Amino acid sequence: MKVYSWNVNGLRACVRKGFLDWLDASEADLIGLQEVRALPEQLTRASREPEGWHTYFNPAERKGYSGVGIYSRTPLDSVLNSVDVEAFDVEGRVQIAQVGKLKILNVYFPNGSGKNRDLSRIPYKLDFYKHLREMLAEGLASGERILVMGDFNTAHRAIDLARPKSNEATSGFRPEEREELDRWLDAGWVDTFRAVHGDVEERYTWWSQRGDVRARNVGWRIDYIYASPAAMEFVVDARIHDQVMGSDHCPISVTLDPAILAE
């Protein structure tokens, strides 16, 4: 079973850059998209309801902003679009999907930068991290099989970005943001890519669109799939698909033993 996550930075733009061709060739069973930035009715039917896929969307109230979506080859048992906090729910940042015994959260974590890159959104971002972590604590402790995947908007360690020294004051690598990821891992969550591959360097998932930084691989690893210990037992592989274009992020994936769905 293959599960993918991808911040498409505008699904309509990504479709124009070949998203549907990638979708057909992906061999994915389920794909979580972040930053869809469109209401479902603003998407073409081919991208909203592609043949062979079941789709679920949670747009933000504000048009052209945020939003998440799931594409699944089989119907999901349930999908919730709320974390019971209106300030978070209005931005369309979370889908909580259940398929068999596996719970998958498709999440677009907030960026800490305000409109003028003034760090004004960091409190909101940290509150979001904390609320989601606390919301999942009981399931984590009771042995639920859970994946939390998406654009976390934070590089956890210096190995996770090409220019750590020059970005220590930048949202996405500030100490208070990185400490929140520490809390997730300390609670028992597993960074699937690091668990499978260890501390391999220069593997990134996002690159600025300025200049030729992607060609030079001057990037950040800010997209993750975190697994609960119970889910991690079924993880066979984890990958960064940095050869896939179409967005300033690239897709990431985990391969799971399909027994993860069973009783």
UniProtKB/TrEMBL annotation:
Its EC number is 3.1.11.2. Keywords: Hydrolase, Magnesium, Manganese, Metal-binding. Probably binds two magnesium or manganese ions per subunit. It is an enzyme of class 3 (hydrolase). One of its GO terms (biological process) is base-excision repair. The active site is at 108, 151 (proton donor/acceptor), 249 (proton acceptor). This is Exodeoxyribonuclease III. It comes from Lujinxingia vulgaris. Residues 5-249 form the Endonuclease/exonuclease/phosphatase domain. The keyword Manganese applies. Belongs to the DNA repair enzymes AP/ExoA family.
